[in-house]
C-alpha cells in the first residue's frame, strides 16, 4: 500500500508528488531529518499564542501526506488518482502534550482495525489510520463510489473510536483527499496486519444524524451560560442584578449622604444567594463605591456575612425572563449552528457534533423541531421565543460568495480563465481576451468592487448547432461550490422577478436566446446595465436597494438574433464551430 507525498512551492506556484510505502513512512517519522523542521515548529508553538497570527517560515518544507489516495501525474502534468487505499484519517487535537498523545495512541491501538496511530506535526494531536474494505475484501475504483464509500467509512470510524478515546475526535467533512503535515514520532503505533472494517458500497451520502447530547442539569447559573461567554461579563451581569435588588430593599439610599453599611450587607446577601464568589463581590463593590467604602471594612463585613449565611448559590437574583434568555442562548449555541444567508435570503442551520456537515434551510418543520427539543430539555420557552432568537442579531450574517472567494488562497500564476475560454472552438481571434475581461467583471460584481455607475453589461452569446454542449459550458463556468447561483430560467414576462434575479443569482444563462422577442430585448438591455435593483421583497414593507451579483451569458442555435437597428454593443457573439471540448 502506497501513500502520497505532496510538496508545494507557493512562491513558484509548483507542486511535486511522490509516493511511499506505508511501512517506509512509519520508519521515516521515527527520526528527525537534518533540517529539523518539525522540531522547530513544535518549539515555536510552545511560545506562540493561538491568536497571535504568527507563521512558521519553513512550513512549506514539510510535505503533506495523503494516506487514502495514491496519486500520479497525467500526460498534461495534472494530478490524477491511481489507487484508493481505504484508509480513513481521524484526528484528535487540542491535547496538552506527549502524555495525552501517548494515551490516545494506546486507546486507538485497542481496535484491531487501527492501521497506525502517531503524533501530529504540532505534537499536540494524534493521527489515527483506520482500514476499511468492501465485503469481498476489495476497494471501490470509481471516484464517485470512492467519495460515497469514504463518507460512510468516516462516519463509522467516528462512532467506533469515540467511545474508546478520552478526548473528542475533531470532526471535519470527510474526503479521500484529506492530508496532514509531515510529522515526528519516535514510537508510532503500526499494525501492518490490521483487519479492515467491512462496509457495503453505499449508493447515497450519509443522512443527518447526531451524537447524543449531554443534558445540562447544573443549577449554578454561571455554568448554564453559553460556551465562550466571558466569566467577567457573567459576574458583572449577576452583580448588577443583585445590586438592583439591594437598592430596592434599602429604599431611598443616596451616595454621600446615607451610611453605606446597610447597603453593603444587602448586597452581600443577594450575591451570596446568587452564587457569586466572595472575592468577586469585593472587587465589584470597590469598583462601584470606591469613595464610600474602605476595602478592609468591606472585606471583613463580606467575609463574616459569607460565614454566617447558608445556601450558597441556591437562589438566583436573575428575573425569570433573564433566566429563560440565558438558558435559551446556551441551548441554541450548544445544540445548533445558525447563519443567515444574505444571498439566498434564507436562515440556515445544522446540528453541532454532526456527521453530516451541510447546512439546511430553516423551514417551519425545523423551527418546530428546535422548539420541541428545547421543551424536552426542560426549557420553558414558547414558539415565539425561538422565532425571536432566530430573527435577531444572535444569528450571524453569512455570504457564501465572500466565504468562497476568501478561501481560494493565493493565485499560483496559472491562467485558468483563458484556458476555460479555450474549450469553445471558434474562429474569433479575440474570444479569449473578451471572455477574460467579462469573467473578471463577473467576479468584480461578486466582490462589490468598482463604483455604482457601471455594471457588467456585456454578455457572451454562444451560437452553434444543437449538441455542441453550449449550455454545458455555461454551467461549468461556476465552480461546484457556487453552482447554486446558476440559472437558465429567466422569465421576462415578470419584470419584478427578473430584477430580483440580479441579487439572487451569480450567473444567468439566457438559453435559446432567439426566443427573446423584439419587445423583450429592450427590457433585457435595461436589465444588463442596472447596477442595483430597488425592489420591495416579498412580505416586506419598504423599498430596498438590492446589490447586484448576476452576470449574463446566452446560447442559441440560430444566427438571426439581434433586432435593434441602432446596434447591440452589449453582446459578444461567438460562432461555435465544433462540439465543445469535454472537461
TrEMBL record:
Pfam families in alphabetical order: BT4734-like_N, VapE-like_dom
Domain (BT4734-like N-terminal) ranges: 59-190
Source species: Bacteroides stercoris
Residues of the Virulence-associated protein E-like domain: 410-576
Name of this protein: Putative P-loop ATPase
InterPro entries found in the cross-reference section: BT4734-like_N (IPR014907), VapE-like_dom (IPR007936)
